[in-house]
Amino acid sequence: RTSLLVEVVALLHDWRGAGLLGRAPIGEVHVEADGGLSLYVGEDALYARLGRAPFREKLSRFRRGLDRLAQDHQKAAYVYLDNVRHPDRVTVRLVGEHAAEAPPALALRGD
Which of the four pLDDT bands, split at 50, 70 and 90, describes residue 54? Predict the structure, then answer.
């Protein structure tokens, strides 16, 4: 339990460091069956699956993804940032997409 609390505190620290604190406040933090973390954030309760630490780069990509969606006047229903094989990928399901459509993967590298 202590290690989980340390991981959540690190996540909150990185959330602030990524500039997300005022933009998309965290409503809930969940521990998934595999031990990874997921969040419900913002007014629309956007689901963001982060997986395991480290979180800094994942949250930086998350912020860039939100910026890109805002530029395109779109909203995400969920965001997955836990791809172990391709950690540079962000998978997004847009609000209004049909379930049969595959969510697009956004490659968001660097800052």
Answer: very high
CA-nearest of 39, 44, 43 to 79 is: 39
Are 51 and 36 a contacting pair, CB within 8 Å? yes
Q: At what angle do helices 56-71 and 2-17 cross, to 10 degrees?
A: 40
Distance CA 24, CA 22 (A): 6
Rg of the chain (C-alpha set):
13
Instruction: Measure the CA–CA gap between 93 and 56, rounded to whole angstroms.
Output: 22
Give 42's contacts (C-beta < 8 A, 6+ positions apart).
23, 24, 25, 27
For residue 74, the SS3 value is coil
Tell me if 82 sits within 8 A of 49, measured CB to CB. yes
26-45: pLDDT as tens digits: 999 999 999 999 999 998 89
| Region class of 71: left (phi > 0), else alpha (psi between -120 and 50), else beta | alpha
